[in-house]
Structure formats: C-alpha cells, structure tokens
Amino acid sequence: MVHAEVDARNQPQYAATDVVDVTHGWYFYGITERGSLAPSLLASFGASKNDRPSVLGDESPLQLVELFGLAAVVRRVLLDDFRPTAFRDRLHNDNGLEALVRCHNDVVEAIHARQPILPSKLGVVYANADDILCALRPAHDALLRRLHRLQGCDEWAIHLYADEERIRGRVADAEPAVNKLRNELALARPGRAYFLEQQLRDELRAATEQALLTHAERTFDRLSSFSVDALASPTKPRTDATEHLEILRASFLVPRDIIQQFETEVQLCCDDSEGLRCEYTGPWPAYSFAAQEDGETV
Amino acid sequence: MKEAVARMQEVTLLDLLDRIIDQGVILAGDVTLSVADVDLIYLGLRFLVAPVGRLPEIMTRARPADRGEVVRE
Q1: B57 lies in a domain?
Q2: Size of interface A-B (CB pairs under 8 A)
Q3: ipTM value of the model?
Q4: What residues of A are in contact with residue B1 (Cβ under 8 Å)?
Q5: What is the pTM of this model?
Q6: Residue B41: CA atoms inside 13 Å, Cβ hemisphere, count?
Q7: Candidate from A91, A98, A125 with C-beta closest to B52
Q8: Interface-testing mutation among B20, B22, B54, B60, with chain A (most A C-beta atoms within 10 A)
Q9: What is the pLDDT of residue A133?
Q10: Closest-CA residue to A26 (of A65, A66, A83, A69)
Q11: Does any domain span residue B72?
Q12: Domain A154-289, CATH
C-alpha cells in the first residue's frame, strides 16, 4: 500500500521511491472510502493469470493511495505501455480493446460489489503518488459526498427503441392536422395536390418526431421517479437488431431495495402496442454518476 | 433483475464502452499527467480509439443475439 498519511504541516508522506521512478506510473481505477477494503481483495488482482497475457499491468496487485477519508485504487504500470503508439498497437490486436475495458471494469466492479466507488474512465495514469494526492486534496470533501450518495445504489442502462413506421402510422391516424391535409389532398387538383403532398410529408415528419420525443421524455421521467439520479445521453444513429430507432439512451442510479419496482416500470414503459421496445443492462458501477455535479466545486 | 445480476459477468461491451470511455470521475490533476517525456494517452484515448476503426467492428460483435450477453427485453 502506498502510504499517504498527513503530517502536522498537512503535507502527504509516502514512499520516496514513488517520486524518482520515471519508468512506472499508477493506473487509476477510481476512488473509494478509506479503510474498508480487505487486503486479500487487493492482492487477488495481482494473482498470476497464466491463461491470458497481461493487460493493464495486472500481474501487479492493486494498491491504495490514501488521503483522510478517501482511497484512490491504483496499480503500478509501465509508462511505456501507455505511449500512444504502444497503446494503438494493443488496440489493433485481436480483442485488445475489449480485454482492456473488461480488465478495468473487473476491478471497478469487484470494489463496487463491496462498497461505493467513483470509477475512473479508462486510461488515466498518474506519474506518481504525489500527483494523485494533489488531485485528491482539494476535491476531498466533494468526493466523499459523492461516494455517500452512491451508497446502496447501482447504475442501470436503458435503451428505448421505437418502431418508427408503426408510430408514424399511428400519428397519421390520430393527428388532426395530418387528417385535415389528407382530406384536402383527396379533393385537390394536381398542382395544389403536389403542394399539399409536400406539406403532408413535412407535417407527418414533424408530428412523428414529436411523438418519438414525447415517448422518450415520458419514459425518462417515469424511470427517473424510481432512481436517485438519472442521465440521458445523446442517442446515436444506430438501430437495434430489428432496425428500430433508438430514441432514448439513459442511465439511472437505482437503490437496490427498489430494483424490482424499477424493473416493473421498465416493462411498463416498453409497451409493444405503442411500437416501443426496451433493452437494459446492469447492474453497473456508477460510471455515469461519478463526475462532479452541477455547481459542485472539485 | 436477479437474472440480469447473474448474467453480469457477460456484460454488454457497447454499454461498457459508453461508460468507461465517456464517463467517470474527473480530478483536476488528470490533465497534467505526462512525465519524463512520456506522452500518456489519457485525454487522447477517445480520439485514439475512434480512428482505428475498431468500434464499428466491436459494435457488430456486441450484438446480444450473437454474444448472448446481458441484454434483457
């Protein structure tokens, strides 16, 4: 363990070898509360894994850099492994990226199973323990508050997909403006019919987009009421296996003691009769809720 | 949810990438990480990952039906 006690002058003290070693750095997994992680857990991650090559220096045990009530979970790695060229080579290897992210997540997940952790994103490496302490010190209280907020919660990812054609059909039947244009079109002469067709197409597109937005907002609001925090991410131009449009991609921080109610609500939101379908994954460590909150100083 | 918990070992790679590359705790010191002329990857990782063309392939491979991963409907 890297000691980071604080002396009377409030200066961190740690092993001097950490400062002068320019070949190794500290891969950063996240921040947890100090003093409650079993040494056996930390050591187990350094156990020999003969069945696969080393990823993220995982032949080394996890270590803690501690400051007051916090502990940064780190692992000693070769800095050379994190040069862009070396890293790019690794990503080009078969399954390189997957192995990398799973290795990172395995550690975060193991700690999350025992106590709250603020996970780091992939690829953060500190040159030495002093850098970590310098980063932790001004953020200490805010990080501790954030950790307490995660107590007893898991993150769940929700993807809401819509059958766009089906919803467009429903909108076409239900939207008064669309019906009015349809009626006009049926009686219009060719010149005006061309104009009305364009207008109808625009009206239908706008009404469909509004309907999809409403479905997404309603689902987000309903699931938010079963979570302590929620975050909507931009959806990407990707469809699911049935080519449905993803209209909501969101993360919810859900207390474990109401997880069944949350699941029930998810099922209710995925109303097939409305042309909607949900996928969800979890439980995740709180990756999406680890960053600072609005107005919080870190 | 218990079923999903049991299947967590086979997490969806796409959701994992969403979280692990885009999200996570950020400390003020994270932007000053280079040492001894070693150009570390940190902020460049997202930029680095995208151009190598791996994500589309991984997203394809991550289809739940193909991998039997944790995606419940």
Answers
A1: yes
A2: 170
A3: 0.74
A4: 259-260, 262-263, 282-283
A5: 0.76
A6: 28
A7: A91
A8: B20
A9: 86
A10: A65
A11: no
A12: 3.30.70
Nearest to B63 among A104, A241, A251 (CB): A241
- Break chain A into its structural domains and give their ranges: 5-151, 154-289
Q: Which residues contact A187 (CB under 8 A, 6 or more apart)?
A: none
**Within a 13 Å sphere around the CA of A5, how many CA atoms are in the beta-carbon half?**
3
Mean pLDDT (whole number) for A210-233: 94
Q: Could you tell me what percent of chain A has a pLDDT over 90?
A: 34
Q: Is the peptide bond before A283 cis (omega within 30 degrees of 0)?
A: yes
Residue A12 pLDDT > 50, yes or no?
no
pLDDT digits (tens, 9 = 90+) for A74-107: 998 887 777 767 776 776 665 677 788 888 899 9
Q: What is the mean pLDDT of residues A226-255?
A: 84
Range of the domain at B14: 2-67
User: Residue A76 has which token pair?
Assistant: 């000693």
- Residues across chain B: 73
Is the residue at B27 inside a domain? yes
Instruction: Report the distance separating Cα A255 and Cα B1, nearest Å.
Output: 13
Looking at the 3D structure of chain B, how many domains does it have?
1
Token representation of residue A64: 């803690």
* Chain B CB contacts of A142 below 8 Å: none
Assess contact for A288 and A297: CB atoms under 8 A.
no
Cα A74 from Cα A132, distance rounded (Å): 10
- Is the pLDDT reported for residue A217 higher than 90? yes
Q: What is the pLDDT of residues A45-61, one digit of tens each?
A: 765 555 555 666 666 88
